[in-house]
Structure formats: structure tokens, C-alpha cells
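Standup notes, structure subgroup. Blocker cleared on the G2I input:
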Amino acid sequence: MSVKRTRLIALCSGLLAVAGAVAVMPSASAGTTLRAAAAEKGRYFGTAVATSRLSDSAYASIINREFSSLVAENDMKWDATEPQQGRFSFTNGDRLVSHAQANGMTVRGHALLWHAQQPSWAQGLSGSALRSAAINHVTQVAAHFRGKIHSWDVVNEAFADGGGGGRRDSNLQRTGNDWIEAAFRAARAADPGAKLCYNDYNTDGVNAKSTGIYTMVRDFKSRGVPIDCVGFQSHLGTGIASDYQRNLQRFADLGVDVQITELDVAQGSNQANIYATVTRACIAVSRCNGITVWGVRDSDSWRRDENPLLFDSNGNKKQAYTAVLNELNAGGPSSPPPSPSPSTSTSSNPQPGGGCTATVSLNSWTGGFVATVKVTAGSAPVNGWTVTVSLPSGSAVTSAWSATNTGTTGSVAFRNVSYNGGIAAAGSTEFGFQGTGNGPAATPVCQAG
Ligand code: G2I
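Run returned:
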């Protein structure tokens, strides 16, 4: 850690101590929406969306105000994206991505392979025909959305419930135990810039199922199978495992990010507390990238009888909403250390005070690379930014997303696009680019304004 960064931390904690002494109310910089408050902690706050409902203005206005990440509740699943073998349908998924991009949100991809919601043609396949159809599905869908997905649920719910900690029986599992790693390798090749996640439920504490998954992730990391993150769905009842945070942390300690991916909690006297506990756990685990709730209003929920969401059916904020917002604002702004996945290297140029900093994460292979750049505001908000990156000779930028580049070789400047120029104090945004040759070795320079 540089001296500059140490001074910044000392300065921030001094300010917090002062604020804490005089204020009972949230400080002036406290986020007033979930997305703003989460951004101040360097995290996203997302929701599952039914694309067809985006034309409901009450629904869309809550989404646009409160959330910084979207996931399709159903529209990117296998039955939706490949209804007939080899005939792909991306209309709804593309609409969701456009909506997200127009509103400065990232997108989680859900889900490339799952035993449920398979198109009927796939349900009828087995053996090598199913394996190659499944890998083709992963390749085509991940390639279609290449560069637009923050994290993909590559494989969903492949572990069995109950005490054994083993795999769930399914047509995919019957193609051979290596189907999961084959899916991850295909996804990496098709979209090298997306974080690749394994996602499951009933994994909310240290238990046989979460330990089975933990063992698989440890094995994947040791053998170089490309996995970057684990999703904890967190469909919760009226209680929560006392070791929820410890379980997230043990996965993070394996070198993967963790994400809360489908949070909803049965209504009851404890609902707000459980939401608060989950939020606190994610903030406490530096590799927890963000939280996604599984729907907007109670009436939108797959569990609507249990009123499990943050907004009531009229779109009013519930106690659970306030509990989450307060947890996100607790302790003031802070950022987790940049998580390197799916990169192989990182570098940064911390600058205290105003201005901005940039961190680049590289995923390289022979002849090419994908760079994901995180732009972070200093202690003042940023309105417009330019990140300049030095490429080694022989390298060239071939495409960029969420930024526009001037030049393709040598010193290349990336300017924000319309939706991501404004960054709250201590907040951050991401853009990316890919290229031929080797990625940037030197520290990028961020200029605000
Ligand atoms: O089951 C809850 C979630 C568990 N984890 C994976 C998620 O993908 C899953 O989401 C739910 C959706 O919330 C439901 O909306 O997945 C269900 C399918 O397993 C979705 O339900 C389906 C109905 O089964 C279909 O009949 C319906 O056509 O929703 C479809 C669209 O409304």
C-alpha cells in the first residue's frame, strides 16, 4: 500500500470520527437510494426484472431510481434464448441490457445452464448430443452478450439438497461430472471479460450443500478452471443462519468473489432484521461485489404470498427497505479493495481528495487480452472522466464498452459515455476494452472533468 493511500485512509477515518461525534442523523453524504448508498461502499445493488414489465411506469421508475444492476428473472434462461435448437432469441435479453446501459446499470447474466427451464428439445436429449448442445448454448449466448455482462451465472443449482453434499441428478449431470467445468471453460472463451459464477440456494451457512460447492470451487481454483465468483441466492424464510457471513468469507478466502444473487425474505416480524443481516454481511466481506433482490414489489415476486421484497405492492418502501439503506450507509463511504477476477493482474494510482483513480484488471491469453477498468471518484463527486492507458508496442485496442477511445495504439484515452460520467464521491463505475497483443503494464492515469 502506498503512503498516499495510507494518508487517505487516515484522513477519512478522522472525518468519520468527527461526523460520528456530532451527528445522529445520517451524514450529509449518506446515499438516499439503494444504488447510491451501495456505490459509496463500492458495491452494486440490483434487482431481478421481468423485461415485459418495464413498460409499467411505476415499476420502471422504482428500478431506475433504486438499482444499479439488473438480472433477467426469466428472459436469459435456456428456454427463452434457444427455444428451438440452434435458433436463438435475444429480443428480451437485449431490451434488458439496453435498459441497463441507458440507466448506468450493470447486468448479471442468469443462467447459462440449469436443470430447470430447459427448452423441451433439450429435455429430450442425453449423452454427447446433450453435452454438445449445452456447450454450444453457453458459447452462443455468452458470445452474443460479450462485453455487456458483469457476471454470468454459468451453472445454476447443480448441487443436491440434503446431507450428502453431492451433485443433483439431472440430464446434464448424466453427461459426466465434468459438465460444469466444460461450461465454465466455454463461457470464458466466449466472453473473457465477464466474471463467471456458480449460483445456488440453501447455501446460507456452512452446511453439507455449501461445503460440497466449496470443495468444487477449491478444486476448480487448484486446476485452473476459470471460475470467478459464487452466487448465494438467499431465498430466506423467517430466520437466517448465524454463520451467514462466515460462509461468504470462507468462499472469498478461496480467491473468488461472492455475490448475493436472489435475495428475498418471508414477511414476518424479522424481515427487516434479516435483510439488514445479509446487507451487513456483504459489506463486511470485501470480496462481496453486491446484492440482488429477486424482484421489485411484493406483487412482482415468485413468492408473492409471502410479501418478501423491499417495496409493497403499491411501490411503497417497506421497513425492510429502510433497514437495508441504513446498513449500506452505516460507517460512511468506503470501497472494498479491487477484486482481480477475472483478471491476472492489477495496478492502480491512488489519488487522495478530488479527482479520480483507475484500476485495471487484465485477463490475457496468447495474442489478446480483455481489460476491465474501475474508475473511482475521490472524496468529491466527479462529472466526466478520461482514463489514459499506455499499451506496449505491437498491441492495439479492437473494441471498448462503456467508454469511447481516442487512438488504438500507444497512449490510448478512454472518455466516459453519457450514462457513466457522473460518479458520486467515493463511488465507482467500470468500463472495458479488448485488444490484440499484450495488455497495459503501466498504471493508468485518471483525469476528472
Ligand atoms: O424459483 C426461484 C428462483 C430460484 N433460483 C433460480 C431462479 O431462476 C428462480 O427464478 C424463478 C422465477 O422467479 C420464476 O418467475 O424461476 C421460475 C421457474 O423455475 C420462474 O417461474 C416461471 C414459471 O414457472 C413459468 O410458468 C412462467 O411462465 O415463470 C415463468 C414466467 O413468468
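Discussed briefly. The longest strand covers residues 356-365.
Next: hand off to the docking folks.
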